Amino acid sequence: MDSTPKQNLGISAYRWLKQDIIRGVYPPGEKLLMSRLKERYDLGIGPLREALSQLVAERLVVAISQRGYRVAPMSREELADLYDARAQLEGLMLELAIQRGDDAWEADVLAKAHTLAKVMEVHSPEEMLDVWDTRHQAFHTAIVAGCNSPHLMQARQGLFDQVERYRHLWLQETVLSDEALARKRQEHAALVDATLARDVERARTMMREHLMTPVPIILDAMQRRGLA
After folding, report:
1. How far is CA 70 from CA 19, 24, 56, 75, 163, in A?
2. Which of 20, 82, 92, 178 could form an SS bridge with 25, CB 3.0 to 4.6 Å?
């Protein structure tokens, strides 16, 4: 029997459920009732259990012994640790990229920076958030990709998966603000200049400051929503 349709259902369930958790459809601590999940996604228990198991491994969901699943809690302690870990790793990968990156890497960084700076014509706040964030992620990934280490890139992706719920709070506060976006454009341009100038110390300092900027904004959003 062909298992491909079952695999596709499991992948779909994982993607839909993960997106809804990141966007706060299911808030931290909420019990994920199988009956509600079946109704919302029009899927059977098998694909949903597969998706939930994967999200447990990513620490977005907590398994409760004999009692199902809950959305993992959020906390100011986890926020601080995740962002510091990301900044430490990103700084190391940036340094390696500056040491190892070639002309093709430089060209890709410039291309992704240009594409990000031109996010203008969108039709709704939600579309703006999605388009800007996709290009923003591509820009930062292009910078560190010059490190030429698949294992470091994999570790980076794992941290990114865990931080996405926190990032989404920041995106909602930032992407819909022209002033905040203008500041980000300036930061990105300065970061590209330092990186392509191969100035390791300046680039690492700027990258850390850039990556840590969202923390107080996220903490404020968490407090307003009763999450911290």
Report:
1. 15, 13, 9, 15, 18
2. 20
pLDDT tens digit string along 79-124?
A: 999 999 999 999 999 999 999 999 999 999 999 999 998 876 666 7
Output the pTM of the full model: 0.86
Residues in the chain: 228
Rounded to whole angstroms, how far apart are CA atoms 214 and 140? 15
- Contacts by 98-106 with C-beta closer than 8 Å and gap 24+? 98/146, 98/195, 98/198, 98/199, 98/200, 98/203, 99/200, 100/146, 100/147, 100/148, 101/146, 102/146, 105/142, 105/145, 105/146, 106/196
pLDDT at 196 over 70: yes
Q: Among residues 142, 135, 150, 220, which one has the least CA distance to residue 185? A: 135
Residues 45-51 have a mean pLDDT of 92
Task: Give the residue from 29, 26, 23, 16 showing the smallest Cα distance to 70.
Answer: 29
Query: Taking every pair of C-alpha atoms in the chain, what is the biggest distance, in angstroms?
Result: 57
Return the higher-pLDDT residue of 113 and 6.
Answer: 113
49, 112 Cβ separation under 8 angstroms: no
pLDDT at 125: 73
